[in-house]
Amino acid sequence: MLRLPLKTLAVAACFAGLAGAAQAATVYKTVLSGANEVPPNASPATGDATIVVDGDLLTLTVNFSGLTAPATASHIHCCTTPSAGVATQLPSFVGFPNATSGTYNQTFDLTLASTYNPAFVTAQGDLTTARDALLSGIANGTAYLNIHTSNFPGGEIRGSFSAVPEPQAWALMIVGFGAAGAILRRRRAPAFA
């Protein structure tokens, strides 16, 4: 039976974890509230949104409740803070609920012009640059989701996206800590004759 040193196994596990993480989708989340609006408002509404970017596909999931009036618009603004132009479909994402509470889940192809606000694509120069700008804005925290209502036409609830650590990254970190601990315990163990 082949016996490899613990250090070799730890290095192999790290490389295996890195190879798996390279294939993973990137996840971003935000909490939606009136306090996040600019300027902040006293809306009792709350919500959350998740973006999963997997290659050229962007899956958006939004949960919201307690709006003071039915949603009149919902979209992602990008790429400056505190306020930015609308980057995605206008006035709302296709099929977004015109309600005070709801859930929305849709996958968008980032290579299609129909995913974007035409003015955003024009301002960026072309579709590829618009895609890159939107993804960069989501990744660096300068993109936010807004839900508008008739009571708050400038936006009732809002939230800026931030990255969520990938499960593979957590697994890799745990394996690394475990391997480091095992190596330290092995080095500290007294030698018995």
TrEMBL record:
Domain CHRD: 24-166
Keywords: Signal
PROSITE patterns, per database record: CHRD
Presence of the UniProt keyword Signal in the record: yes
Pfam families associated with the record: CHRD, PEP-CTERM
Keyword Signal: yes
UniProt cross-references to InterPro entries, sorted A to Z: CHRD (IPR010895), Ice-binding_C (IPR013424)
Superkingdom of source: Bacteria
Endpoints of the signal sequence: 1-24
Name of the featured protein: CHRD domain-containing protein
Phylogenetic lineage: Bacteria, Pseudomonadati, Pseudomonadota, Alphaproteobacteria, Caulobacterales
